[in-house]
Sequence to fold (71 residues):
Amino acid sequence: MRPQWFLVESAGSGCETDTPEIPYDQMWDDDQYWIPLLLAKQPFVGRADFRQEGEVFHPKKWWFGLPCNSP
Fold:
């Protein structure tokens, strides 16, 4: 697997509270679940399993949630 980097533009005036426009349609299917948690600085745990078909990785199963000791 090779990482691919995306430039994320801010949707507003450049303040920290602006929500970035993230190209989820160009990313792996599980990213739409954990990236919002990361951007919200919310602690989380999770797992994503993929299966490889040639050069393409397809999601097999994934889960993300709050840790047991989270408020």
Notes: DSSP finds one helix and four strands in the chain. The helical segments are 31-39. Residues 9-65 form one domain. The mean pLDDT is 79.
